[in-house]
Design goal:
48% of the residues lie in helices and 19% in strands. The protein is of the alpha/beta class.
Length: 236
């Protein structure tokens, strides 16, 4: 499988950005607490003003926990995407092209993967969830919980429409098959599917599905590369 360069590195930037903010917040928390302890020990008194100083030190500690949580969320997604990239690269031939982690103009979040195949284009939304998940049509939730705010079905459908518009803006590439797929990268996840509106696949099932699906039109390597360049040109 060949890669088309042009990744926005959205997840990678979020991972390292939030990790850096968490580290900075922790350092600031420790520095403020040590300063307050020094002041108390030096003066031998603990006044209301010094208590206020300790409360101020709590603020960066709250920020530390916030950024650490965001780091774990983004890192989990990034690790899932790396698993998808690895299995596609090992199972698909050089007739296929891959674009990873693309953030297009117009917002709406990043596109995890785009596979350009001789039979069409596959837009992948990767989830590295664990535990038990229920999918009822377009609704995703954990048992006994409210539906997820971030809905992968809606997201992958929006991304499919974005890619369709980009491709159809060129008369040369009209009527190219574009399909969305939700990929569950974590092997420990248990999912209950009930009439999902888009294909939902486990990681190991993904390569065979891509090879066996698509439209009747056969695209050449030159056409796939041109489509890839056209898509990447629309990134932020």
């Amino acid at each position: 499988m060949r890669k088309i360069q042009g990744s926005s590195n959205y997840l990678k930037n979020q991972v390292f950005g939030n990790l850096a903010k968490a580290a900075l917040s922790l350092i600031l928390t420790i520095a403020l607490f040590l300063l307050e302890i020094y002041v108390v020990l030096y003066t031998g008194q603990f006044s209301a003003f010094k208590l206020f100083g300790f409360l101020i030190a709590v603020v960066p500690f709250v920020a530390f926990n916030y950024y650490l949580h965001k780091y774990h969320v983004y890192n989990g997604g990034w690790q899932g995407e790396k698993q998808v990239t690895k299995i596609l690269g090992s199972c698909l031939s050089d007739d296929y092209y891959l674009i990873n982690d693309l953030y297009l103009r117009g917002g709406g979040g990043d596109i995890d993967h785009i596979v350009l195949a001789p039979s069409g284009v596959f837009v992948l939304e990767t989830k590295n969830w664990s535990g038990k998940i229920i999918c009822q049509g377009d609704t995703w939730q954990r048992p006994g919980k409210r539906a997820f705010n971030s809905n992968p079905s809606h997201q992958v459908k929006r991304n499919v429409e974005k890619i369709k518009r980009i491709i159809e803006n060129s008369v040369i590439f009209a009527h190219v098959w574009v399909e969305g797929i939700i990929v569950l990268a974590n092997r420990t996840v248990t999912v209950n599917l009930n009439n999902p509106s888009v294909p939902v696949l486990r990681l190991l099932d993904l390569p065979n599905y891509i090879v066996s699906q698509g439209g009747c039109r056969s695209l050449s390597s030159e056409q796939l590369e041109a489509i890839g360049r056209q898509i990447v040109a629309d990134k932020v």
